[in-house]
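Private note to self, pasted from the team thread so I don't lose it. Backbone tokens:
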């Protein structure tokens, strides 16, 4: 079954790379094929104005009949739908962890169904760790503090605050200075010594909806080839939560020695961090 699914994924990807995006664009009328006795079509033709990439993604997802598709299938479906590899698309997320809200609540002797959350006097860790977990700083650790999805109001507001910060931080160095704040006030107030709510809003949102430059992201065809080449992921499914990490040996950054995972596990915890810094 897994082999059949892999064949479906690769076949759909190849169709897209070699021309499926141009289906429906040809002006040549479709040729009528003679009907043959006992023959039947198993494929469903594209609907009028249906996006070929989205249709191909649906075929891939349908191959798993309601199951969670493997990482490579999720990534391929996201690419076919026009993804630019955002933080919650394809196999980039959401992350799986054993350290969930329910796990922490039980560790602290709190009912996971409670709406009051975990107060400071129930949390056995340090003040610094409590404040880190209490993301919204309401005095209790709640399930909402563990939700980093795009649907979470805190995450949405944080993204907006970050945009405002970048607008004020004109030097782009990640450090907002008094001079930058004063310059923003000067520009927004237009020579006045005070700002109205309208002035403040207009200054922050000026040009917000302006169409930016065309995306310089690679085309879907390039991303698909990169996926199959192992450049933006792997066609093999990664280990699940609670699985044993596969052993490996890698050179250090300096290149003068190697490190083997199996030899590090033992006396103290080991944290593996994988990332792209290109």
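Design output:
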């Amino acid at each position: 079954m897994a082999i059949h699914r892999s064949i479906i994924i690769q076949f759909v990807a190849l169709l897209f790379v070699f021309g499926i995006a141009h289906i429906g664009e040809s002006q040549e009328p479709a040729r009528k094929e003679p009907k043959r006795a006992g023959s039947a079509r198993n494929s469903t033709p594209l609907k009028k104005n249906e996006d070929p990439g989205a249709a191909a993604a649906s075929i891939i997802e349908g191959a798993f009949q309601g199951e969670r598709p493997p990482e490579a299938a999720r990534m391929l479906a996201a690419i076919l739908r026009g993804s630019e590899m955002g933080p919650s698309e394809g196999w980039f997320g959401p992350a799986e962890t054993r350290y969930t809200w329910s796990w922490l609540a039980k560790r602290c002797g709190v009912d996971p169904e409670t709406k009051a959350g975990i107060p400071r006097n129930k949390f056995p860790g340090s003040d610094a760790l409590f404040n880190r977990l209490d993301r919204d700083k309401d005095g209790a650790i709640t399930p909402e503090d563990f939700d980093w999805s795009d649907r979470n109001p805190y995450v949405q507001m944080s993204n907006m605050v970050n945009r405002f910060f970048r607008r004020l931080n004109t030097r782009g160095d990640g450090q907002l200075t008094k001079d930058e704040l004063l310059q923003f006030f000067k520009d927004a107030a237009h020579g006045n010594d005070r700002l109205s709510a309208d002035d403040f809003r207009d200054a922050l949102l000026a040009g917000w909806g302006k169409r930016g430059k065309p995306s310089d992201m690679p085309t879907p065809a390039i991303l698909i080839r990169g996926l199959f080449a192992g450049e933006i992921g792997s066609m093999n499914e990664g280990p699940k939560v609670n699985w044993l990490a596969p052993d490996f040996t890698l050179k250090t950054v300096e290149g003068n020695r190697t490190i083997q995972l199996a030899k590090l596990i033992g006396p103290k915890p080991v944290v593996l961090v994988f990332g792209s810094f290109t």
